């Protein structure tokens, strides 16, 4: 079995969060989804598990961080080009996400940030290897 990455995030409103993540390009894996959790597929090997707070606490050994007021992690998603970054960002904002700061263009890397409803921060980026 190939190595995979599962990012587990506690969310307050599961259905609303699922809609936001779908707007960014994630698909739902129904095999691992129910009323308490949804498995969101980014790629063949990368998944985000959106878990109700109750479900998340079944796995956690510490209280859930208040990511509305503090950053717990910056999770980055790569896109094929700048237009794809902008399209995903527009969809995320239209679905209710927030942009905590303006885009950053470093020449070789184009980056935008999106916060979901629970304050989880996603860095959406395109990196041009020729620009290094």
Q: Would you tell me which CATH topology applies? A: 2,3-Dihydroxybiphenyl 1,2-Dioxygenase, domain 1
Number of helices: 3
- Looking at the overall shape, the CATH architecture is Roll
CATH superfamily heading: 2,3-Dihydroxybiphenyl 1,2-Dioxygenase, domain 1
Helix content: 10-25%
Query: Which strand order do you get reading across the main beta sheet?
Result: 1-4-3-2
Radius of gyration: 15 Å
> Structural class, please?
alpha/beta
- According to DSSP, the number of beta strands is 8
Overview in brief:
With 132 residues, the chain is α/β, with parallel strands linked by helices.
Commentary on this structure:
There is one protein chain. The model has no long low-confidence stretch (mean pLDDT 95). The radius of gyration is 15 Å and the shape is globular. The strands form two sheets. The protein has a four-stranded mixed beta sheet with strand order 1-4-3-2. The protein has a four-stranded mixed beta sheet with strand order 5-8-7-6, with helices on one face. With 132 residues, it is an alpha/beta fold. The chain has helices spanning 14-23, 53-57, 82-94, and strands at 5-11, 27-29, 37-43, 46-52, 74-78, 104-105, 109-115, 121-127. It has a single domain, classed as 2,3-Dihydroxybiphenyl 1,2-Dioxygenase, domain 1. The protein contains three helices and eight strands; from the N terminus they run βαβββαβαβββ.
Overview features:
alpha/beta, 3 helices, 2,3-Dihydroxybiphenyl 1,2-Dioxygenase, domain 1, about 130 residues, 4-stranded mixed beta sheet, about 35% strand
């Amino acid at each position: 079995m190939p190595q995979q990455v599962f990012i587990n995030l506690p969310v307050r409103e599961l259905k609303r969060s699922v809609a936001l993540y779908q707007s960014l390009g994630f698909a739902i894996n129904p095999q691992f989804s129910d009323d308490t959790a949804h498995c969101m597929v980014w790629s063949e090997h990368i998944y985000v598990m959106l878990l109700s707070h109750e479900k998340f606490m079944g796995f956690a050994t510490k209280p859930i961080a208040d990511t509305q007021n503090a950053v717990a992690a910056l999770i980055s998603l790569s896109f094929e080009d700048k237009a794809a970054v902008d399209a995903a960002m527009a969809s995320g904002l239209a679905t209710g996400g927030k942009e905590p700061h303006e885009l950053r263009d470093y020449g070789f890397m184009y980056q935008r940030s999106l916060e979901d409803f629970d304050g989880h921060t996603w860095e959406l980026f395109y990196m041009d290897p020729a620009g290094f």
